[in-house]
């Protein structure tokens, strides 16, 4: 694109001032990496002024500072509301330097004053024990993005822009990050951004040509190929290229003005009454500048500026080598700090004047501290969506379908606030949440055909076949103060394991920072789960995400296995009310017996675990012979069916049934706030009776959660043991020995003395397994008596009667 | 691109025959989804001929069949060596149908004969208990790719093509899959493919417009935008678009001929003597065809063909609804099976003649059963790379740097075979494996500048800032019979958790299929690990990958924590010799004390676990008071330092030191073939003494592995508890309470009676922790006495003396 600036006069002296501001930021960045003391170089630089360990990344930083300074100029000139997503998060010194220069840093950290003493502390704390991390992090004002693990800058930026019509999210994408898969897909987010209702994302692809030790793919591509690539993605790229600062300032100012004018024009057009909105061609900037720009050209005879050697600490040993020390001093002095800071060490007034004011400062923008802007999510009374359960097992319902009705109402209640979205990889209907489409649509900015279903330019549901995008959009949306739910096939949530890790880390640190206000929890609904992927087969069968989740800090994570629809409703309602957490709800979508009335569900979920006395056979005043425990809807069904078998064939066996909804109750209270006390645990699981535990996922997790409990040696856990294929639903549990027969057989074997006397019963169950295997191979479906089994106290499965719908 | 076919005459009757072949494949695909019996519809279709549960995906299948038929034609015409990577793996019926038609299926599964009876079995077994999965899977001849979890087709294709100069990998990318991040990045793999030495990848982007319940992003993009996008990625797209079969056959045949001619021309040019190879513009095909092509146009009044309703089973209930049954019968008969199969149910000879012969059939291509082609990796004697260790702790070395020297020799020995590659996300040098650059380079097909370092068009090292690409390339490379190593920062290997899962599943099933020959193991080197990410901070600190790994089938996975260089060498040598496994090696790269001579290392690693009697203080004939166990290099260091503290201050305490290299030894033998017997376990860990276990990762894993051991209640595990930031190395272990002082204090507290008498010692250790905290906050580095601590029996750290180098 030929750049024609709509603001044709940027007086040169403005850009001269801007250049000085940039130099100040560069000076502070170098200072953070290197200096313990002598921050303004008012004395000759000595080895003892240098940190003993040099930890930080210079290479990307001058480019980040350059962009920051230019965004400041635009914000000032046009009174813009902008946040800065820094993809190359390891350029932390730049983000800290800029927020310090604009004053937002010292407001949050008053100890880091805007004078020479504050500068000294600012430098010293960076990458220093007890100080601040080397990366942009929760500690960094204005940041919603760590950038430690690369790939998510652009998807976070889009998440922040949705439903924020006044906001511009400037997003710097490094050329290293641009090689990652999630980032490569993120460019397509423009197909989901509505210029009428959403804000704008301004991607700035920062090509400095190198990563740690290699050139970058995009850095080595020609402008012609890059232009083609990004036009193909649907953008209008503006190129800013060079290394001579004055010319680069002019180019960048012009490009930014063109881009912002283009954004304004797109939004104005889309926001006309009766506008017919089509996906616009949004602008983006491709900035080619040298890696380690303005740093040393060579060190020890090797090329540094404009090469990967500038990536981290360009001058390795100024504390030990006098020539390195001299080089560092010359480098820092090249920024002319005496022209940037006054006698007290304060930024000179003409440079201070360049920074935006108040909440317009990118380090003080409330969108980047989303809890400040968060409105409570309005929730309907979940009891109004109860499935009527007059006796356990009588009603048949699809748990997620009932949840869909609740979510429909959540969408309606919050429609005006536009602060709730549901993300999913093409699975909202497949996961049976489709009641939401009664009141909203899927967002889609591409063409819509007359026969398309539930697609619109505006909608609360976002579907794309990328778990990375779903997760990243939602993170960006939550971090800027909104609410949401991510519904996903259970197996494929592993695709975002690492994104989950990073979000958990962000929350862990954020919670320790009083100035960061709480944000809404990240809520996962994992459905189409392992036990009902009988049709898609082994690749779709993996319940291990919760194992990863359980590794995280206890106050961050929750894991729920509601066994039926009413418990799912209670848990979902609860999760949507929480803050600063990651809630994982695992629930099935298939028709299944319902166990608890809403009243009983509320009591059960509130405790998180409990004895289902209606299912057991223990007398009131005696200990049971065996505890049959279960967590998860299918394990609960199989456990109850096993109890039914045992009750019929061994009527004297004293069975207790324990159901676990909140997995964290199993941990000791010292490990997790939801953990049961040992006394309560023992009262549920006994001190020494066999416990046959049917668990939804890999059995090891239960052992790990309960290893220190009194009766741990008595816990016999069955779960998914990595056996599966395309088969029948019941065969899936048989393959993993989690079915009613295996459970009943183990109960018989574990109860002392019973094994021998009940040998014939065991044999009967074994025969039933063989018969089942023969039957399904002959008929291709489960035996009717298994498929249609109902809990004996109920009078047979019926369709759900809705209490509130 | 204007298509000009270099084979201008494809006689129409050829394409008519080809169309019939396609119809045969479509007929067989529908039959697999629906029919239990009456495979050739020679009787009227009855409800009892229909499967009770209809599990399969029709939508993508006709397009896959169309491509297969056209590839057959090209293979026949030009005698090509082609494998077919089927991205939409849920189009399994198509892959099965085609391998059946060409005869490769019946060769592998002789029970599925090429006649009416075989057809009946073929149909019946699909998605049927005891039969075959609904997706392309290990069971599918000619497949190296499951396609259940989407995103990896193209990266697998490139992995297969590297170092296979005669091979063409046809790779079908569905437009659903094309939305994923890994796939979006995979297009850039062309920057790593050398036309002189590698084979070709022919991507066929199959746009049928829809995923499960939505249009696709790429399907709705205009041809102009698509052309731009793929030209930007560096390809030359050829468009084939329409729905009328005859015209589509003509277009596709022409496009394929053009593409193959282009590939031939690129390769011929590159393979000239003295050719200067530049990255060529490889051809690709964009095929737009209707979803569910040739299926029912409408069902129950709703659009099906050309819409997402065709995704799975287009006619829902032919067993229950007569009008559905009639519709299905009419659909199947529309393929005119009576013209395709003879009286015995065999494909008619003129159609049989269209399929390639022998190993040219894509279902019989040996590259897709890589174990057939695999050559043993030549390995040097690892003992030649030993670090000299005359007494424990005396030598200082960097473990991965020593491994790099071994790998250098591996590369040299296998240079002629061109069957070993090292993958890494820009980290080979950072991970200190850079000795390999003595003998090879990083592959790079983009421009190379004079100042670039170790870049070349040919090389054994592949670096890209995408863990997805590294993993996917390596999988494709291994699955086609070669060898490799993936070196990665420990924290970011979580990015490929889900790819690991899928590869483990592939191996698990492959091992159960005798015709699938063993392939080389997937070897991970995880370094730059949690304890030495003190400079990058919290986002880079995550040791949880092994928790995921430990969930998988025991005979597939191995996890190793070599504590020093010689043990790392032994383990790496061992892993590179194994087959059909996933080996995870976690090892540090920082200078660290060396504990074992190569002889001792071999003994120790061979056992996988052992008592380090030189470090302990237990008398020969007495039980120890406490066992100090460790797994991982940093935990080993801290454990020995703790033992040193205890030996000095509590000389009477009887300490046993146990080091664990092979984590799987901790499991019961019933769970893992490497597991210790209970007797051996007890002899190491005692039946009842306190065990202070310093573990590299999340402590829960040790509990989970050992929960059933006699002394489990005595196991006190310390590990990473999710505390970290940018700080000093020793502070990292202190923050997680894994340091020598915490270990020593816990030992004192756990040994009965000692806690009171040794109160002053505990206090001394606590004071040391406080002093450490003060010191690092003042100085920014660890106290010299901690940093420079050496095992007391050694005479101080020295640089390594190389035995064999």
Automatic annotation (TrEMBL), chains A, B:
Record keywords: Lyase included?
yes
One Pfam family assigned to this protein is XFP
- Family membership: Belongs to the XFP family.
Q: Where is the Xylulose 5-phosphate/Fructose 6-phosphate phosphoketolase C-terminal domain?
A: 589-791
Which terms are listed as keywords in the entry?
Answer: Lyase, Thiamine pyrophosphate
Q: What is its EC number?
A: 4.1.2.-
Give the required cofactors: thiamine diphosphate
Q: Which organism is it from?
A: Bradyrhizobium oligotrophicum S58
Q: Where is the Xylulose 5-phosphate/Fructose 6-phosphate phosphoketolase N-terminal domain?
A: 13-372
Sorted alphabetically, the Gene Ontology BP terms of this entry are: carbohydrate metabolic process
Report the protein name in the record.
Probable phosphoketolase
Q: Which GO terms describe its molecular function?
A: aldehyde-lyase activity
């Amino acid at each position: 694109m030929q750049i024609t600036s709509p603001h044709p006069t940027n007086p040169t002296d403005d850009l001269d001032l801007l250049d000085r501001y940039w130099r100040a930021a560069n000076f502070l960045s170098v200072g953070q990496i290197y200096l313990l003391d002598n921050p303004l170089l008012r004395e000759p630089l000595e080895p003892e002024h240098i940190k003993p360990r040099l930890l930080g990344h210079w290479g990307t930083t001058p480019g980040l500072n350059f962009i920051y300074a230019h965004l400041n100029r635009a914000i000032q000139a046009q009174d813009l509301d902008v946040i800065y997503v820094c993809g190359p998060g390891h350029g932390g010194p730049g983000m800290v330097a800029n927020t310090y220069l604009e004053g937002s840093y010292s407001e949050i950290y008053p100890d880091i004053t805007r004078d020479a003493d504050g500068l000294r502390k600012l430098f010293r704390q960076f990458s220093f024990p007890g100080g601040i991390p080397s990366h942009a992090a929760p500690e960094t004002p204005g940041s919603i993005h760590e950038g430690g693990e690369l790939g998510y800058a652009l998807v976070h930026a889009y998440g922040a822009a949705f439903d924020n019509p006044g906001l511009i999210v400037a997003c710097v994408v490094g050329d290293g990050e641009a090689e990652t898969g999630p980032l490569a897909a993120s460019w397509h987010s423009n197909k989901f951004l509505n210029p009428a209702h959403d804000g704008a994302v301004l991607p700035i692809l920062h090509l400095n040509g190198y990563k740690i030790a290699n050139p970058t793919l995009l850095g080595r591509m020609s402008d012609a190929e890059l232009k083609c690539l990004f036009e193909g993605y649907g953008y209008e790229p503006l190129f800013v290229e060079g290394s001579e600062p004055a010319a680069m300032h002019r180019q960048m100012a012009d490009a930014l003005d063109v881009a912002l004018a283009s954004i304004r024009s797109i939004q104005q057009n889309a926001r006309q009454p009766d506008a017919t909105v089509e996906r616009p061609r949004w602008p983006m900037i491709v900035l080619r500048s040298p890696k380690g720009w303005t740093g040393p050209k060579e060190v020890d005879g090797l090329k540094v500026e404009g090469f990967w050697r500038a990536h981290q600490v360009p001058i390795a040993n100024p504390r030990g080598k006098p020539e390195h020390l001299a080089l560092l001093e010359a480098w820092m002095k090249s920024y002319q700090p005496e022209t940037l800071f006054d006698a007290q060490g304060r930024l000179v007034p003409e440079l201070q004047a360049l920074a935006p004011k108040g909440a317009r400062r990118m380090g003080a923008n409330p969108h980047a501290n989303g809890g400040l802007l968060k409105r409570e999510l309005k929730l309907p009374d979940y009891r109004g969506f109860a499935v009527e359960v007059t006796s356990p097992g009588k009603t048949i319902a699809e748990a997620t379908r009932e949840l869909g009705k609740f979510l429909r109402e959540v969408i309606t209640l919050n429609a005006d606030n536009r602060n709730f979205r549901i993300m999913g990889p093409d699975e909202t209907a497949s996961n049976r949440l489709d009641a939401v489409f009664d009141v909203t649509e899927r967002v889609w900015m591409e063409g819509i055909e007359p026969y398309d279903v539930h697609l619109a330019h505006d909608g609360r549901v976002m579907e794309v076949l990328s778990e990375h995008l779903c997760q990243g959009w939602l993170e960006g949306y939550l971090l800027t103060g909104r609410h949401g739910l991510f519904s996903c096939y259970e197996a494929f949530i592993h695709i975002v394991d690492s994104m989950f890790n990073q979000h958990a880390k962000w929350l862990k640190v954020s919670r320790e920072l009083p100035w960061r206000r709480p944000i809404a929890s990240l809520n996962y609904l994992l459905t189409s789960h392992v036990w009902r992927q009988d049709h898609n087969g082994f690749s779709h069968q993996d319940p291990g995400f919760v194992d990863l989740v359980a590794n995280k800090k206890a106050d961050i994570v929750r894991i729920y296995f509601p066994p039926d629809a009413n418990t799912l409703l209670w848990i979902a309602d609860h999760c949507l009310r929480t803050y600063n957490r990651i809630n994982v709800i695992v629930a099935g979508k298939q028709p299944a017996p319902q166990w608890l009335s809403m009243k009983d569900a509320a009591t059960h979920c509130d405790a998180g675990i409990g004895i289902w006395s209606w299912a057991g056979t223990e007398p009131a005043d005696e200990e049971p012979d065996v505890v049959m425990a279960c967590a998860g809807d299918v394990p609960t069904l199989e456990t109850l069916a096993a109890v039914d078998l045992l009750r019929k064939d061994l009527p004297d066996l004293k069975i207790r049934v324990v159901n676990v909804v909140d997995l964290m109750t199993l941990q000791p209270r010292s490990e997790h706030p939801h953990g049961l006390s040992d006394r309560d645990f023992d009262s549920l699981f006994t001190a020494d009776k066999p416990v046959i535990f049917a668990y939804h996922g890999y059995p090891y997790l239960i052992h790990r959660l309960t290893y220190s409990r009194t009766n741990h040696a008595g816990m016999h856990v069955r779960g998914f043991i990595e056996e599966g294929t395309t088969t029948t639903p019941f065969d899936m549990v048989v393959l993993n020995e989690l079915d009613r027969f295996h459970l009943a057989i183990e109960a018989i074997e574990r109860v002392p003395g019973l094994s021998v006397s009940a040998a014939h019963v065991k044999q009967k169950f074994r025969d039933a397994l063989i018969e089942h295997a023969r039957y399904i191979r002959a008929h291709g479906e489960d035996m009717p008596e298994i498929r249609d089994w109902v809990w004996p106290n109920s009078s047979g499965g019926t369709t759900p009667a809705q209490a509130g719908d």
